[in-house]
Amino acid sequence: MDLLRSEPMQLVQLIIPFESAHRTISYFGDLGLFQFIDLNAEKSPFQRTYAAQIKRCGEMARKLRFFRDQMTKAGFSPSSRSSAGPYVNLDDLEVKLGELEVELVEMNANTEKLQRSYNELLEYKLVLQKASQFFHSAQSTAAAQHREFEAHILGEGSVDSPLLLEQEMSTDPSNQVKLGFISGLVGREKYVAFERILFRATRGNVFLRQVVVEDPVIDPVSGDKVEKNVFVVFYSGERAKSKIMKICDAFGANRYPFTEDLGKQYQMITEVSGKLSELKATIDVGQLHRANLLQTIGYEFEQWNLQVKKEKSIYHTLNMLSLDVTKKCLVGEGWCPVFARDQIQNALQRATMDSNSQVGAIFQVLQTKESPPTYFRTNKFTSAIQEIVDAYGVAKYQEVNPGVFTIVTFPFLFAVMFGDWGHGICLFLATLYFIFREKKLSRQKLGDIMEMTFGGRYVIMMMALFSIYTGLIYNEFFSVPFELFGRSAYSCRGSTCRDASTVGLIKVRDTYPFGVDPKWHGSRSELPFLNSLKMKMSILLGVTQMNLGIVLSYYNAKFFGNDLNIWYQFVPQMIFLNSLFGYLSLLIIVKWCTGSQADLYHVMIYMFLSPTDDLGENQLFFGQRFLQIVLLLLALVAVPWMLFPKPFLLKKQHKERHRGQSYAPVQYTDDDSFELEIDHGSHGHEEFEFSEVFVHQLIHTIEFALGAVSNTASYLRLWALSLAHSELSSVFYEKVLLLAWGFNNVIILIIGIIVFIFATVGVLLVMETLSAFLHALRLHWVEFQSKFYEGDGYRFSPFSFALISEDEE
């Protein structure tokens, strides 16, 4: 069936043997034309039949997410060609994923330990190098002082010599105090606080030396690069040592052993360097092995990921089926299009044969009064338009679909506001890029805005083509007119053309064949002429589209067999709208055809204030006053026509229905599908609330009567936005491009061109496009669809593997 009405649907019951249930649901997922109904809605997820299998799939999905994270950290990406590999049994896949996870976790743990040891040895090597420099310089200083003391002893004493020098030099070494020391590294940002705490805790009985490490060091604990200082703390006594060690632990300072012996220092540096090279080689081999493992996983990742998602969705769907009494079969119910009946039965037969089941599945159509889901078969061209309509509300089952008309009217109304064939060409070229590269771009992850633009590429293409068409009518190319279809019909009175803007032009040729004559642009009457043209054109387009909406309400009522809506909604609405604004549209067309100078504002105002007065010079045709009186009376009659009869007739129908005089039987078609019984205005066997129905009808009547005025005025946005777009384009051209050209300077001209391009793209091609798009959207949702579209249905959501999201868990 076409897009005008949704596909006929049928409620189906399936009875599937256990042995073929999994394969049947899998084939349904490939088909994507069956929407299952949850028959176990009262059960929690843990009480359902296949809860254990879903838990297994969830665990496998967790392992696959772990593999994806590891590949991302390692800089790998899953191979896109892997999804077409052979099918792997779910049990084998579960075992394989478990083995790979254990192996990868073990490799990560070993690599982490080796890396930590490597970082500790690097720090230890830094401590040995920096601290040895400090001890070497200290010993050199001590040796120099010792030689100086000996020189004083051997030389002649002087008045300046210390009195106790000889006693100091002769002190017994065994009585001297031995100082201990602790060396390590501490973060540079913590060093000041570290030094202060040490001083306070030991009451100043420590000697602290530090050496700055130039390059950041990888911390063994956190694994982050940190700027550190090498420190050596000298102390006296075990109590001070204990305090210093606790402070080091509190500040995260890593301590390393150190010796005063220079020979042992060089030996330790050599040993540490050897261990570092061995660890580096081991880590490199481990990283290579890990990279090979991740690459192997990457080749199969997409296939495994897709298979796990499919299996999980299959078991989710199986949980929606109920067990029969014998517990040997699964019973399921769901909706499917009538055209898909043969495909579904073929899938059931194929599943029975492939699973070697001795009992076949049973397919039977059920009759119901429940409203079916709405399903439209769309393609990549019509899907974006259908999404625009569905954003307002999903169509009721087999209600007229506005998307059929929106395909044309939406881009056309956009173009009326955006009319410039230069800007239209720019939009068209941009959409051609998306269309020619759609296969490549559809596989990529785009941003939110780019994703939205790419999804609506065909709508934007239609908007661009219609903009080129209306731009040719307006004769505007970046606000510049061209004589594309012949020479202008007007010319100046003299050769100098000085009086063109004061006296005006004279007509010397036939009328310009297509669109606005280029001579109108820049003349003194350009703005009044274009304002009048676009304003009247907006009213004509608005009244035409609103009439289309009311006509579609007639087809809805006729399709559903609702005569009340035809006679007491469609007819009075058509009379009311066309008695007022249809008549205004007629006056506009007559004025255009006759060239009359009549004031239409005056005609419409006094049609209500004094309909019997003589029209005088505002009369456009014979019998106009009589016609106005008749139309005014018809508009006045249409309001109570909409308001009063329908509630009373609904009440009468309700009484007759309960007396058994009027029943609407369920009708069946040849293919055992059903046609939904519609009871308009009735509530089954519930009590009929006349007051509620009457108030609802009153609101509907007032809304339509006031909406006819406000909606017609709303279409004037077509005129307003078209004028704004034209004036903005003219300002950018005259005040930027022509102004820069007038300076006769290349640099200023280049700057002017750049500013003109950015202003055109940023304001006219982006902001104005978005603005016109939103206004066209409003005109369709409010002014057009409100006339006939209920939009209270629900979307057909079949079980389909194609709809599985990549981010689904």
UniProtKB/TrEMBL annotation:
It comes from the Eukaryota. It is found in: Membrane. Its main location: membrane. GO terms for cellular component: membrane. Residues 90-117 form a coiled coil. The keyword Nucleotide-binding does not apply. Keywords: Coiled coil, Hydrogen ion transport, Ion transport, Membrane, Transmembrane, Transmembrane helix, Transport. The chain crosses the membrane at residues 412-436, 457-474, 537-555, 567-590, 626-644, 736-767. It is a multi-pass membrane protein. InterPro entries: V-ATPase_116kDa_su, V-type_ATPase_116kDa_su_euka. The keyword Membrane applies. GO terms for biological process: proton transmembrane transport. Belongs to the V-ATPase 116 kDa subunit family. Essential component of the vacuolar proton pump (V-ATPase), a multimeric enzyme that catalyzes the translocation of protons across the membranes. Required for assembly and activity of the V-ATPase. This is V-type proton ATPase subunit a. It comes from Forsythia ovata.
